Each structure stands twice: as structure tokens, then as C-alpha cells.
Amino acid sequence: MSRPISRLGLLARLIGSVTILAIAVLAGIAIGETAIEPSIVLQTLANKLWTAGYGLDPIDEGIVWSYRLPRTLVAGACGAGLAICGLILQALLRNPLAEPYLLGISAGASTGAVLIAVIGVGGGLISLPVGAFAGAVVAFGLVAILARTSRGASASSQIILAGIAGSQLFNALTAYLITKSASAEQARGIMFWLLGNLSGVRWSSVWMAIPAVAIALLVCFWYRRALDAFTFGSDSAASLGIPVRQTRTVLIACAAFVTAIMVSIVGSIGFVGLVIPHAVRLLVGSRHTRLVPTSALVGALFLISADILSRILIKGQVLPIGVITALIGAPVFALLLIRGARVR
Amino acid sequence: MSDPLTTNSEIVLECQALGYAVRETWLVRDISLSIARGERIGIVGPNGSGKSTLLKLLAGIMKPREGQVQLMGRALQGLNRREIAQTLAFVEQQADTLDAISVQDAVELGRTPWLSPVQPWSERDDEVVRHALQDVALAHLSTRAWKTLSGGERQRVHIARALAQTPQVLLLDEPTNHLDIRQQLALLKLVHGLPVTTVMALHDLNQALTCDRLAVMSSGRLVALGPPHDVLTPQQLQNTFGVAGRWLIDPVDGARMLRLEHLSEQERETHD
Ligand SMILES: Nc1ncnc2c1ncn2[C@@H]1O[C@H](COP(=O)(O)OP(=O)(O)OP(=O)(O)O)[C@@H](O)[C@H]1O
Ligand SMILES: [Mg+2]
């Protein structure tokens, strides 16, 4: 399975992936409450990127360039990022349920973000993503300590139990902070944001989300063999020559970093990190050389599609994207499970 | 690619005054061993006597509280994991996975210490993996899924994975566990036929007789070390294992073997 793919094959795959992504992004821009012709989308992009000088309606141009394009790019980055986070955590913790949402990382990031946004911790000196990152790291630290010190059962189920406890704690903290300090208006906005919301996304978010995902993707790809080596557990990884502690630290920090960035931009979106890696494993097997890029691609496509649906499902209203991911994700996952069980 | 560790000395693996503790409880303590190139060492002892702990310390998977281990004459702490894994392979007592991997995938993991993020899989890696699978007679199962394998087949896959590391020293923790008698004998023959230094924990004392030297563990201590016939004396068997043992001679070829019998608590006391 790890046969090296020929250079030509690699190039073909790369071109294929980029094409599919580009089509998805185009769809993400064109479809919405006001549908925009794909040709107008392309002309706008040509105007902005190469100053092609097509004469276009400035309103259409504005929708395409200032709203839908950044929104779709962030959706894609977010899907790719969360999928990789789930992949990393599942491989390292040897638990199929591990993902940023279940392990309390998303909840911690939300608390951190709310502390900055509502309470004003840091007096405007600390930005929202920094707060979210600190929250994510604190939450995961607490969960890890709890999992380590509580004796009993197997270590891998321990971390999930600890994660659930951590999520509850941080979600409660977030709710407490909001009730205590936010105005009714603010509270509604924050709750909406916490369920996952791409409405407020502008170009500044794109410049955070895409580099974060690119870094995470490179790091994961660099560590792909190490991730494989955890197949039989961490002792086995160590005897295969992997510096276990260093690898874990780097990769989990990477997952916390990406989760924090994503939560600070779009709120916490569950399910993507859990479902995408499993679905992709059924497609390409369990070696990370393929899993890492494929998960990122499928995650991006999934969230771009979910975003499109969230805009058109109910006329005149945008659903929180977290609702859509769960609504599509759960049945698709069930189907894959049934099919997978039959195939193997 | 880095060069594998080498040494001119005959001693490939040794430890001095090795000890490991969890809080105040010593799991193993005061263990000194020198293992020569090509030697086959058996570690025997009752359940909980510290065999697995000792093997993990020797493999560098756990850090000793006291003493140190030297691999090829170099302190284990001074080597990185990759260098250790290129020289020494370890097969755990239990290692399982839920991942849907094939036998081929599992054995390919053994090449991990020889690959790097920028170093692609090569023909030589293919060659090594193929050999490892042949050595454990599993070539015909290479495409089978891990979860469809029997316990004995899994054990052989683990050994093939260790062999794919092309190690000079092989540590095995109860490799004959879960195997039927034929597979047990086949596996011992296989391991003894390998051109590597082996250290393995075993429970069957008659099987342990095939080793060059035996290390007898009891309550975390090394209580005897030497050729099997010298260390497995009736007195030692009674003290360490709490069983009565007598040496018998096979009339056909004159080979010596152990006859073991249970001792009741009363008998154990009166014999003391
Ligand atoms: N983390 C731990 N904390 C406390 N005690 C431990 C720990 N790990 C192992 N032990 C104890 O240390 C002792 C030695 O364990 P070890 O696994 O090395 O024994 P063993 O000789 O391999 O036994 P077996 O034949 O059953 O495999 C046992 O009594 C075990 O209960
Ligand atoms: Mg043991």
C-alpha cells in the first residue's frame, strides 16, 4: 500500500484535487439566496486577480469578492483543518472517538474567545484567536491531566471520559460568562456563533485560516510515518524508533492550534473531525501518506457543501453550519459504517 | 541514512544495577546482565516477577530509576529512539489494533526507523519486508486483514515486523503465548535460527531449555543466571516457582528434560 506513487500519478492526483476544490469554491460562490451566474463569478475573479476589466454590476462583484469568496475559502480551510485534527487525535490517542469537539478542545477555545470578547480580558491587547488558543490549550491540558491521574479502565477510554467532563465544564463556564456579562442581544449573537457561523467571515479571517491549515497539513504530512507507527500503541511506536513524547507534543499542539483558530473564526463545529477521518479510512485505507491529504480534501469539500446548504435550506434564513454538519454527517456516517462492515 | 550501531566487543547488550520503581514499589531491582553477540537468553520467572518490565527497560521503552543499559557499548540514554530501533527490535506481550490494516502494512511498519519524511520507500525496503514475511512463513497471508488473523498468526506478524527492522538484537515477550504446540515449536525453531542475538521471556521451562542461558527472575530480582541445566535445579524450582522438579533422561537420545509437579502449600513449607 505504501508503494511509492509515480511522479506522474502524484501530479495527476494533485491536479485532480485542485480542480475539484476549485469547482467546489465556484459552487460556494455561485449558489446562495441571490444566485450568481458562474460566468459572472469567473469574470469578477478575473477582474480582481488580473484587473481584467470586465464591466460588471458592482453589487454582484461585491457579493462575490467581499462575502462569498472569503466565506467559502474559510469554510474549506475549516473543514480541512478540523478533519486533520480529528485524524491526528484518533491516531495518537488510539481512540476512534477522539476529535477536538469531544476532547473539550473546542469548548475550551470557546471559553477563551468569550472571555476576550465579552468580559474584555486583556483590555483589547489580546486578540480573539490568542484567547481561543489559550483556552484550547488549558482545556486539553486539564483533560490530559485528568485522564492521566484517574486510574482504572483502559487509558484510551479514559481520555474520552475526561474530555466529556472537560467539555461540560467549559461549556458551563461559557454559558455562565454569557449569562452574567452579556446583553441579551450579545448573548444571542454569541450563541449563534458558538453553533458555528460563517456569516461574519471577511478577508482578514481567510489570512488566518488558510496559513493555519497549510502549516498543519505540512506538519502532519511530515509526521505521516510516525502517525502510522502508533498503529499498535505508543510502546510499539517507541520501539519502532519514534520519539513518542516529542511527536505527541508537536502534533497535539498543532491540533489545538488549528482548532483554536477555527473556533475563533467560526465557532465550534462538531462532527467534521469525527466523521471525515473515518469516512476517508474506508476510502483509502489506514496509511497516513494517503489519509492526511485525502482527509484535508474531503473535509474541505464537506464543509463548503454544508455552508452552501446552510444558506439555501430555509429561504431568507441562514442556519448555523454546525446544525447542517450533524444533519448530513450522521446519516452519511451510518451509511458508510454499514457499507464498510459489509465490504470488510 | 545513518550507519547502524556497531561494536568490536562481543557484548552487545548489558545492564548494571538496573532498577525500576512505581512510586515506592520496586518492580525490578539490582539487575546486572551481559549478553554476547549471537547469544540466546531466556528470561523465566513466575507471573509478576518482572520479566516484561526488565525487557521494556532493556528496550529503552521505560526509563530506569537506577542503573543503566548499554547497547553496543553505548548508554541507551545517549542514543535517540531511531538509532535504538535500527539496532534493537522489541515484540510486546500484547499489542493489538482496531485499524483496518493488512499483514503487509503491519510488517512494513518495521521499516519506520530506516525511513525519514524525505526518504521515500525503496526497492530495498520491499525486499526486506518480503524476506521478513517469508521468515515467519506468512508470505501467503500478506494481503489478509489484521482482524481476520488468529492469535498465532498475529504473533508471527509482530515478529516479522520486528525482523523488518533488520535488528541485531531481538527482544521477545512471551512469543509462544496463544500458539498451539506445533506453532510454539515452529516459532522457537524460527527464533533460534535467526542470525540475531535474542532475549525472550518464556513460561514453559522445557522450552526454555533450548536457550543458551537462562535468567531466573523472582519478585523483581535476578536470582540465577547461567546454562539451563545449571540454574533449574530442584531447589531453585521449588524456591522460585513453588513446584517440584526432577530431571529425566529421554532413553532415545539421552536429552534431559524437566518433570514438574505441583506442590501444596504444606509440602512447600516442609521442603524448605
Ligand atoms: N504501572 C505499574 N504500577 C504498579 N505495579 C505495576 C505496574 N506495572 C507493573 N506492575 C507490577 O509489577 C510486577 C511485574 O510486572 P511484569 O509485567 O514485569 O511481570 P511479568 O514477569 O512480565 O509477569 P507475566 O508473567 O504475568 O507477564 C507485577 O506484579 C505488576 O503487577
Ligand atoms: Mg509479562
Automatic annotation (TrEMBL), chain A:
Q: Which UniProt keywords apply?
A: Cell membrane, Membrane, Transmembrane, Transmembrane helix, Transport
| Membrane-spanning parts | 12-32, 73-93, 100-120, 126-147, 159-178, 201-223, 250-276, 296-314, 321-341
Bilayer topology reads: Multi-pass membrane protein
**Cell membrane among keywords:** yes
A GO MF term: transmembrane transporter activity
Q: Which GO terms describe its biological process?
A: siderophore-iron import into cell
Q: Name one Pfam family in it.
A: FecCD
- Cellular component terms (Gene Ontology): plasma membrane
Q: Tell me which domain of life the UniProt entry assigns to the organism this sequence originates from.
A: Bacteria
Primary localisation category = membrane
Subcellular localization(s) per the UniProt record: Cell membrane
Per the record, the similarity remark reads: Belongs to the binding-protein-dependent transport system permease family. FecCD subfamily.
Name this polypeptide is given = ABC transporter permease
From TrEMBL, chain B:
Q: Which CDD domains match?
A: ABC_Iron-Siderophores_B12_Hemin (cd03214)
UniProt cross-references to InterPro entries, sorted A to Z:
AAA+_ATPase, ABC_transporter-like_ATP-bd, P-loop_NTPase
Q: Which SUPFAM superfamilies match?
A: P-loop containing nucleoside triphosphate hydrolases
Question: What are this entry's molecular-function GO terms?
Answer: ATP binding; ATP hydrolysis activity
Keywords of the record: ATP-binding, Nucleotide-binding, Translocase, Transport
> Does Translocase count among this protein's keywords?
yes
Domain of life of the organism in this record? Bacteria
Query: Taking every annotated instance into account, which residue ranges of this chain make up the domain ABC transporter?
Result: 13-244
Q: What family does the database annotate?
A: Belongs to the ABC transporter superfamily.
The record describes the protein's role as: Part of the ABC transporter complex HmuTUV involved in hemin import. Responsible for energy coupling to the transport system.
* Protein name in the entry: Histidinol-phosphatase
